[in-house]
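Consider the tokenized backbone below.
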């Protein structure tokens, strides 16, 4: 199966490739890895690249994309590029300038998808997270429905083809869907999703509203201190995943990715070496049986690696709801 043809239709008529490359890396290596691995991901067949202002490497990703357009590997329209609006730019008047900054860094005239990174706002400023004298994050109060209206205007202006959200719970999605004068529904909700947190209730909710679920941390997590609970078990060492992988002569990582694609979830894969990045493409070479799917479903234990615990208790904190 040619991975480049595996796409899902969004509720606005555009198409998103079912397998994407996640470009997040720890800050100290983010720029280096973006330059090193992004051209390679395009060479091996990835056409969906998931970026964000907060990852601090959009400039390097832009250079990589341009180099692959320049050498004839791809055309701009072959690439599906996502960027994300960071928490410091949720005030409506800051939305378009934030997108324009990402476009400048990415060297693109438009992104294919622009999403609100979280339903919570931080105090505006150049730094990604402003802290008070006690080292606590300074939150801002912004109604994300107003932010959404600013995103709709960006779509109308042609700066992004589609607009969506990330890390929203179902009540927060409902708030946008029921908003007076809604022009465009979110096309997606990008959330942490893997066999230990399979998000089946949120997935059902999203499907019922034609919203595509996009899975990040699909292979568990990178251990990032501020965001991640380090005491959780390592997903890819799970014996059930390992047994299914052995049966199909694939890796546990491929089973975890394939699981998402078969349940209609768009999945982001990461890899910080070329062997793993190339290996991700094998997700199109096999199929899990209904029994395999049921076994993986059975692994769900509501383990959230990315708890964003520093935001708990703040208005808009999404993870207090069941889904």
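A designed sequence for it:
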């Amino acid at each position: 199966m040619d991975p480049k043809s595996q796409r899902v239709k969004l509720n606005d008529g555009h198409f998103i490739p079912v397998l994407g490359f996640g470009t997040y890396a720890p800050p100290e290596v983010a720029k280096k890895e973006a330059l090193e691995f992004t051209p390679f991901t395009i060479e091996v067949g990835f056409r969906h690249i998931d970026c964000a202002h907060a990852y601090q490497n959009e400039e390097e990703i832009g250079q990589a994309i341009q180099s692959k357009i320049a050498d004839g590997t791809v055309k701009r329209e072959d690439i599906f590029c996502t960027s994300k609006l960071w928490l410091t730019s949720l005030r409506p008047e800051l939305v378009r300038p934030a997108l324009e900054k990402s476009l400048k860094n990415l060297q693109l005239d438009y992104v294919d998808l622009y999403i609100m990174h979280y339903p919570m706002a931080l105090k505006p400023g150049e730094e990604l997270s402003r802290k008070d004298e006690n080292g606590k994050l300074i939150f801002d109060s912004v109604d994300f429905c107003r932010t959404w209206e600013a995103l709709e205007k960006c779509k109308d202006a042609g700066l992004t083809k589609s607009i969506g959200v990330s890390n929203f719970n179902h009540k927060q999605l409902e708030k946008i869907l029921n908003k007076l004068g809604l022009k465009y529904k979110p096309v997606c909700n990008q959330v942490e999703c893997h066999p230990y947190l399979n998000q089946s209730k949120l997935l059902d909710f999203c499907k019922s509203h034609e919203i595509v679920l996009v899975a990040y941390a699909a292979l568990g997590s990178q251990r990032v201190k501020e965001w991640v609970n380090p005491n959780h078990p390592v997903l890819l060492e799970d014996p059930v995943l390992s047994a299914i992988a052995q049966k199909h002569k694939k890796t546990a990582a491929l089973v975890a990715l394939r699981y998402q694609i078969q349940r209609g979830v768009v999945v982001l894969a990461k890899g910080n070496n070329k062997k793993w990045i190339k290996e991700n493409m094998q997700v199109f070479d096999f199929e899990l049986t209904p029994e395999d799917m049921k076994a993986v479903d059975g692994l769900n234990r509501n383990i959230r690696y990315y708890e964003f615990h520093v935001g708990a208790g703040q208005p808009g904190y999404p993870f207090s709801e069941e889904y």
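The two ends are 34 Å apart (CA to CA).
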